[in-house]
Amino acid sequence: MRFPSEAIEEIVSSVLKRKLSVKKPQVSYNGGCSSVAERATVARITGVRFSPSALERNKQKKMEKINILFVCRYNRFRSRIAEAYFNKINKNKNIKAKSAGLIKGQSLSARTMQIAKEFGLDIKGRVSGLTSKVMAWQNVTVVVADNVPPQVFDKNKRYGKKVIVWSIKDINEGNDRVIKEIIKNIIKRTEELNKQLNKSLENKK
To answer: Which DSSP letter does residue 74 get?
Structure first.
């Protein structure tokens, strides 16, 4: 069925009037606008309103993430202590920590693991070796050893990744006093590292 031209014009006119009378949407959106002036301008032109919570979520998404890899020679003790303590005290979701060994070592004695437990640290479980996957994941490597050559991680610097060296001796199982001193040393350094990294992220906000 064909419509007369007058009827078609009337229908088009009616549709246009309805479109023009539609209110601008009241939508919450972050829009990628960071300043109040930018948000006000966009809101005036488009009718889009900005939600503070949405802006905060957008800001958090853009925040830098830090992936720490603690490394010692065998991933039996030193790097595991550092990983366990860091994950215990860390409250920042943008910082993650793992550990690995240059070489996969044997499990520790039950006594050594018990001493770590006295400090509230669980270091049971399989040892981990360095892999291409974990090296791609990390952007900060902390060498928790005096018998791991830092040169192994020279590529980190080429890609803008950091390498930190803590020259810590390996334990002599059977000497409880020395084991406890090494744990205390690692805990102290790990606390300092945690503070530094959190401060670094705060400064970049």
So the answer is: S
- Pair 107, 140 in one domain: yes
pLDDT, position 173: 82
| 92 lies in the same domain as 181 | yes
- ∠ Cα 69 191 149 (to 5°): 40
> Token pair for residue 32?
């990628």
Quote the pTM value.
0.68
Q: Quick check: 34 and 46 in contact, CB under 8 A? A: no
In a domain, 1, yes or no: no
Mean pLDDT of 34-58: 50
Identify whether the C-beta of residue 148 lies closer than 8 Å to the C-beta of residue 73: yes
The 3-state secondary structure of 101-119, one letter per residue: ECCCCCCCCHHHHHHHHHC
pLDDT of residue 6: 54
